[in-house]
Amino acid sequence: MISEAATLTAEQFADFSTLITTRLGIKMPESKRVLLQSRLHRRVRELGLATVDEYHRLFFSDTEMQAEELEHLLNLATTNKTDFFREPVHFDLLVDDVLPAWRKHPPTPVFRVWCAGCSSGEEAYTLAMTLLEQRARQPFEFSLLATDVCTRVLGIARQATYSTEQAAPIPAPLKSKYLLRSRDPKHPQVRIAPEVRACVQFGQLNFLDADFGLREMFDAIFFRNVMIYFDRPTQHAVVGRMCRNLRVGGALFIAHAETLQGLPLPLRMVAPAMYRREPGAPPS
Ligand SMILES: C[S@@+](CC[C@H](N)C(=O)[O-])C[C@H]1O[C@@H](n2cnc3c(N)ncnc32)[C@H](O)[C@@H]1O
Fold first, then answer.
1. Where do the structural domains in the chain lie, given as residue ranges?
2. Residue 6: per-residue pLDDT
């Protein structure tokens, strides 16, 4: 049972939710109140405060506290669920369709992939292992950028240490090749091997920024299970901006639960949850 000390009133929730939606684009309907309340409660305890009420009061009255605390608040507003080899058909499409097309007429010497909204790194390391396997068969150069707004999950991604349960979806041959096992039987963990870690460059990026600050054009973008948290106009604006960094002919992967149908974007659906960039200007 949640004590009164932990209760977030409707007005307090509205203050936090407005800020979160403005900064991150994440929808915060009233149904998220209990979730936010329990996450805030944990933060209140970490700070040694007595109540969420006190946290709310300090946050909105003390500008110094807000400046220091904003990153924590935004971190706890994000949902970071992810897995290795999640929705695996997309990794097959990358290998069987996108990469062979690039190899035929490489527009640049490096095959560039962006894992956009990478959470704790599982998707980015899945891409790295997949591309390393292809490179072993037929050499080519690739680069992998992985970004997220949440600094907490980026820390986990860079650390690259996972439980054996988290690593379970990785196929056995890749496990023996690309994972290091802890020697402590009480803490059966794995760490991604240096060869794989070295393939991925992690960075912080907020999709709501008007300019992503990325100079490179990508041959494939994985943007899966992120825009489901945004409203339609935000989805349109973010994917439109993303198109500016997607080479014409390059592929955009979204999650199977998401759709871009009805949005005027220079993208053509070529397989479930896979789009190809068409010529034409993205919305500005
Ligand atoms: C559910 S995870 C998806 C992880 C991975 N792409 C997958 O499909 O397994 C969604 C991620 O989007 C990130 N995210 C949410 N809003 C964002 C924003 N405005 N800018 C950048 N990343 C954001 C969250 O921090 C979270 O890690």
1. 4-77, 89-277
2. 64
